[in-house]
Amino acid sequence: MSISSLKVAEPGHVLGIDSLRALAVWVVIVYHLNASFLPGGFVGVDIFFAISGFVITKSLLERAPKSVFSFFTGFYRRRFVRIAPALFAYLIIFSALAEYMRPHAGLLLVLATYSWFNQVMATSVSGWITTPLSKLGR
Fold first, then answer.
1. Helix-strand-coil split of the chain, %, nearest 5
2. How far apart are CA 29 and CA 20, in angstroms?
3. By residue range, what is the domain housing residue 101?
4. How many domains does the chain have?
5. What are the tens digits of pLDDT across the range 30-70?
């Protein structure tokens, strides 16, 4: 089976990916609600990564680049346009919440929450809470 032979609902949309994505969402939600009910629920995150890899690869194979430079700049431009709005909304909302919940935490909290520094703190400080951005570095 090749990527071009997969059934599509509309141009560029593969049937079944949405169902697999929905299954992964439910698995992760159930795992977070009660880990003992679904001990392997963390696999839902792996499913998301596999779906992302498939979708990105499919997207890249469908484009005919004029040059290697245009290929990479186009790829990263599209990724930025997709990710940046949610990232900026996250940063604004959680910066406000961090200031409200810990008004005197200062620069350490900001660095730890929004950068690679969170990984350093998570591995060296007992009980440190990681953030969604920390998962991007793994």
1. 70, 5, 25
2. 14
3. 68-138
4. 2
5. 988 888 888 888 899 899 999 989 988 888 888 877 888 88
